[in-house]
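Students often ask why inverse folding is considered easier than folding. One informal answer: many sequences map to the same fold, so there is more than one right answer. In these notes we will look at a single instance of the problem. The structure comes first.
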């Protein structure tokens, strides 16, 4: 949408910004610049408003977020699984199949946050959008890990929110094991799982600790049956590839810190949860294959 010269009027930048955000979910102000069709982006819209008739235009690139409706309002999930997506639909399909294959007594919903995928992810989403346990958000652009997860968590109806990478495949009993840690102890704020490399079956994640001054995986490449990775324990941090948190705590903290771009957001969240006095817990009973880095 572009405003014609006849409809343009004086407008300060902050007012222009506020007016755009009343309508669109995400707005990027490009500053004062001359509007042209070249600024338009496929799947988005460009709105321009002149400060004065002589000046150039403020151009806002706006994305109208698409959110699917709740299919069955009577369904009450215990856990809301939030999964940000950016291409790699073949891994997403494996993950969703794994979720359905391991579905048991813990009711959960899946909130799929598409960050502007250009592969067959759209077709995959079309296949689940009308299912009771699924919600679909199409952002139209890549918001990254933190913002994508935060957008998804805003729709969460569960008591607990579980952030899960789409390059994971859960094994039987994984969700029950994680939920039991939160149900059994109110002092636990976050729970992480045992993640394995699919090709070797060895440990990819069994918790994070500060090693040589930086957060790193503990026992990476250890055998999955090694005693040290098969004991439930408190840790400094767990990976955001599979992280269960009480929704009230996540909301209290304002979600993931969006200043971090695809790195250490999970570490920061765990440390902030611990600062509130809650514990971060690892359970080896929740086992998940993780392709890592996909």
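Output (designed amino acids):
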């Amino acid at each position: 949408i572009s405003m014609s010269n006849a409809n343009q009027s004086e407008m300060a930048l902050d007012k222009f910004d506020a007016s755009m955000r009343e309508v669109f979910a995400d707005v990027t102000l490009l500053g004062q610049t001359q509007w042209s069709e070249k600024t338009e982006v496929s799947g988005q819209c460009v709105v321009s408003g002149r400060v004065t008739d002589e000046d150039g235009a403020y151009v806002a690139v706006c994305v109208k977020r698409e959110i699917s409706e709740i299919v069955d309002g009577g369904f009450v999930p215990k856990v809301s699984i939030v999964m940000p997506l950016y291409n790699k639909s073949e891994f997403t399909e494996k993950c969703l199949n794994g979720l359905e294959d391991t579905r048991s007594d813990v009711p959960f919903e899946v909130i799929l946050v598409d960050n502007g995928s250009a592969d067959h992810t759209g077709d995959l989403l079309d296949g689940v959008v009308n299912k009771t346990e699924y919600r679909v958000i199409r952002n139209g652009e890549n918001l990254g890990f933190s913002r994508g997860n935060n957008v998804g968590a805003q729709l969460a109806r569960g008591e607990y929110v579980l952030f899960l990478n789409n390059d994971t495949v859960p094994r039987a009993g994984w969700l029950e094991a994680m939920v039991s840690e939160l149900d059994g102890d109110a002092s636990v704020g976050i729970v992480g799982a045992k993640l394995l490399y699919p090709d070797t079956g060895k440990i990819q994640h069994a918790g994070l600790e500060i090693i040589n001054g930086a957060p790193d995986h503990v026992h990476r490449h250890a055998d999955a049956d090694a005693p040290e990775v098969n004991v439930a324990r408190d840790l400094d941090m767990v990976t955001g590839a599979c992280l269960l948190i009480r929704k009230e705590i996540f909301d209290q903290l304002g979600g993931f810190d969006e200043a971090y771009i695809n790195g250490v957001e999970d570490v920061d969240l765990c440390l902030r949860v611990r600062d509130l006095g809650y514990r971060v817990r690892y359970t080896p009973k929740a086992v998940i294959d993780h392709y890592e880095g996909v």
